[in-house]
Design goal:
The complex is a heterotrimer, with 1 copy of chain A (about 240 residues) and 2 copies of chain B (about 180 residues).
Chain A lengths: L22 H11 L9 H17 L6 H18 L18 H27 L9 H8 L1 E2 L2 H24 L5 H14 L2 E3 L2 H4 L4 H16 L3 E5 L6 E5 L1
Antiparallel strand pairs in A: 2-4, 3-4
Helix pairs in contact in A: 1-4, 2-3, 6-7, 7-9
Chain B lengths: L5 H11 L6 H7 L7 H16 L3 E6 L2 E6 L4 H10 L4 E2 L1 H13 L2 E2 H8 L4 H9 L3 E6 L7 E5 L1 H6 L11 H9 L3
Antiparallel strand pairs in B: 1-2, 4-6, 5-6
Helix pairs in contact in B: 1-3, 5-7
Classes of the chains: A mainly alpha (about 240), B alpha+beta (about 180).
């Protein structure tokens, strides 16, 4: 999306709405597109432009990440500090005035380096995408579909399983008949999702009497199998069920 | 006149193709050629390539043309393929491994309960790959064998110890991102 | 004396492998060679092959060797495979990747500090594409997970190794301002 309207009256520049990945991106754009000296940022002007951009986004109902708001307050803070006269530093001999913008400038310069590095990766990728390795035969492609597993694959597999039984748990509460074995499986799955839970959730779940009784039997079985521990934090506290 | 680039272009296509390439397919990629030009370029490519490159050859097989290693070199190729470790896991094996990694020590019935599926064969695969090991028996009825991950598992996944495995809570945000 | 067959044998192996083959892997396939013999044979193979075969080249990538088509032939190959230019990484993903490549091993909060914005969805994409991987935990309070780039990262960007990346200082914008 392109905004064809200048955001600020004092400079005829245009802001391309879709390119700002974060507040640092926006600030760098404001500074570089107006050819401002990054080591001497006119903070009042930049703050105004920054806030106008945020206001414009709000008008257009475009949700901005929370980081944009945090940066707005940082800018306002720096601006107010700039207005104060430099604090006298009697004791310090080399008492140099500390520029309130210094930290931000450093952050911007660091960020800019990585933006440029990203451009380098982009052009390398473009070249690399124009070459091909030997065409892989069916057997190799099949092999490729197997996971040459990383830590991420392991946790993802675990995550997907957990998501799967979150759905199952809801379903099983509804069923009419129930066995201790079913409940054992259900409890084990719950303990996988959460290492510990409160005893009272069985009452909150509004399950039938039959389910409740079978659940209790299964729970005692797990205690006997030493898969769970029951403990109570205080006298009238809820009993907690924890995986061993 | 034969386009002098044509043989090389044909080679690039043969190399990148996963299957033998037919004349008809090549005709589509290089339209507007004169009759016989493609065949001529292919002939030239074959004779040049097969003369210059000892280890490979362009062969006409049932479906079309393809590059293969020459039979004399099959032994070295086989020797190489044998050295390649197959660290690859099927999805069920990965799932079982995940249960064991996060719930260890854990017994087969427990794994089955969590996965909702019989897991005997994947356990065997993981034992063979030395990613898991037995950890004695659980002191309950039936005394089922318990399983845990091995040192090999840590090495394979570049972990110093088990505490380096990310927890579900930590990865919640990353895993919740849908693409 | 250099085994005159060695360069061709190496070519057969490079051709057979779907991934870059490292010197160490080649050492396993050809045991008992003298010091430097393998490197010499590889050098000879590369110079002969790259001179004789116009459409292909042997390149050093990710600490190994692989054969690819040359970039000049991408039009014909694409026309044959009927692929569109493959999906490139988004700019945010490239930026996150740049931070990880230069600062590795690096934690999520550190990445966020540099980028000025939360990066969970790009992290997810990069993990899925196996361009980055977890690298244990940082020994600070909270023990956050660290990330680093993978071998696949090197292959994707055609890098021999990480040292081939320009230094970060080279990306400092030249100051246009008058002093």
């Amino acid at each position: 999306m392109q905004l064809d309207r200048a955001l600020a009256e004092d400079a005829a520049y245009h802001v391309n709405l879709d390119v700002f990945e974060g507040p640092l991106d926006l600030l760098l754009h404001l500074i570089r597109s107006q050819e401002l000296d990054i080591y001497d940022i006119p903070i009042a002007r930049i703050t105004d432009q920054y806030l106008q951009y945020l206001a414009r986004m709000e008008e257009l109902n475009i949700a901005l990440a929370a980081e944009f708001v945090v940066m707005a307050s940082t800018l306002i803070f720096i601006k107010s500090k700039m207005l104060l006269p430099a604090e006298p530093r009697g004791q310090e001999e080399d008492g140099e005035w500390e520029d309130p913008r210094a930290e931000l400038v450093e952050q911007l310069l660091e960020h800019e380096k990585f933006k440029n590095a990203a451009q380098m990766l982009f052009s390398r990728e473009t070249v690399e995408l124009s070459v091909w390795g030997r065409g892989e035969n069916e057997f190799e492609q099949e092999e490729k579909e197997m996971v040459s597993a990383t830590v991420f694959d392991v946790i993802k597999a675990f995550h997907l399983m957990v998501e799967r039984f979150k759905e199952q748990i809801v379903l099983e509460v509804e069923s009419e008949t129930v066995t201790v074995e079913q409940k054992l499986g259900e409890l084990r799955r719950m303990l996988t999702v959460q290492r510990e839970f409160r005893f009272s959730i069985f009452f909150e779940k509004r399950i039938s009497r039959l389910h409740l009784i079978v659940t209790l039997i299964a729970l005692l079985e797990l205690v006997r199998l030493r898969e769970v521990r029951l403990h109570q934090v205080g006298l009238f506290e809820d009993i907690r069920i924890a995986a061993c | 006149m034969l386009n002098p680039e044509l043989p090389s272009q044909l080679l690039a296509v043969l190399f990148a193709s996963p299957e033998p390439v037919t004349l008809a397919e090549l005709g589509e990629v290089f339209p507007g050629l004169e009759d016989g030009e493609l065949e001529k370029a292919l002939d030239q490519l074959r004779s040049d390539f097969n003369r210059q490159v000892q280890a490979l050859e362009i062969r006409k097989v049932a479906g079309g043309f393809r590059i293969t290693t020459r039979p004399e070199y099959h032994d070295v190729v086989r020797a190489y393929l044998k050295t390649r470790p197959s660290a690859k896991l099927s999805l069920p094996a990965l799932e079982t491994l995940a249960v064991i990694a996060y719930k260890q020590p854990v017994t087969l019935p427990e794994i089955m309960d969590i996965r909702g599926i019989k897991s005997t064969s994947t356990i065997r695969t993981l034992l063979e790959k030395k990613l898991i090991e037995t950890r004695g028996r659980k002191k309950v009825v039936g005394r089922p064998i318990m399983y845990g991950t091995t040192r090999e598992f840590l090495v394979h996944f570049g972990l110093e110890d088990l505490s380096e495995l990310p927890t579900l809570e930590e990865f919640q945000e990353i895993l919740a991102e849908t693409e």
